[in-house]
Design goal:
Blueprint lengths: L7 E3 L1 H9 L2 H10 L9 E3 H13 L4 H13 L1 E3 L4 H16 L6 H13 L2 E4 L13 E4 L5
Parallel strand pairs: 1-4, 2-3, 4-5
Helix pairs in contact: 1-2, 1-4, 5-6
Length: 145
C-alpha cells in the first residue's frame, strides 16, 4: 500500500465506497486516513461526473447525495484541461492501444490525472493494471483486504 504521506488520487469506486460507508470505504479511510491527512486527497473532475451519474442512475436520496457533496468539498478536484494531464492522456491512450489493452476513456483520464500530479491512485479494480507500475503507482483495495 501507499504510505500515509503519499499524495493520493481516489478512483470513482473509492469515492462511492466512502459515501456508502461500507467495509471497503471504512478500510480505505482507516488505511489512508482520508479525512485526517495533512494533504487532502485528489480526484479527477471525471470522477465528479461519474459520481453525479451514479446519483441519478441509482436514484440516491437527499441524504446520500448530500454526503457526496460534503465529501467532494473535502477533496481537491483536478481539472483535465492542463497540459500535463492532456499529455499523459495522449500518451496512455496511444500506448494502451499499441499493446492491445484498450482502457475506457474515463479510466485513462483518471490515470493521466494521477500521473500528471504524481499522485498514488487508490482503486478497487484492476482496470489500471496495464499502466502500473511503469506509468502510474496504484493500490487496489479488495473485499479481502
Amino acid at each position: 500500500m501507499s504510505g500515509r504521506t503519499d499524495l493520493l488520487l481516489l478512483d470513482t469506486n473509492i469515492v462511492i465506497h466512502l459515501i456508502r460507508d461500507n467495509d471497503i470505504g471504512r478500510r480505505v479511510d482507516a488505511a489512508f486516513q482520508i479525512r485526517h491527512r495533512p494533504d487532502r486527497p485528489l480526484i479527477s473532475i471525471v470522477t465528479v461526473g461519474e459520481c453525479l451519474s451514479i446519483v441519478r442512475q441509482f436514484r440516491w436520496g437527499a441524504t446520500k447525495a448530500g454526503a457526496l457533496e460534503t465529501l467532494l468539498r473535502e477533496l481537491v478536484i483536478v481539472s483535465i484541461d492542463s497540459r500535463p494531464v492532456l499529455e499523459r492522456f495522449g500518451e496512455f491512450h496511444a500506448w494502451t492501444r499499441s499493446i492491445g489493452r484498450k482502457l475506457g476513456d474515463n479510466d485513462l483520464w483518471i490515470a493521466a490525472t494521477a500521473a500528471a500530479t504524481g499522485a498514488h491512485l487508490v482503486t478497487t479494480d484492476a482496470d489500471f493494471d496495464p499502466l502500473h507500475p511503469a506509468h502510474i503507482r496504484r493500490t487496489i483495495v479488495t473485499e479481502q483486504g
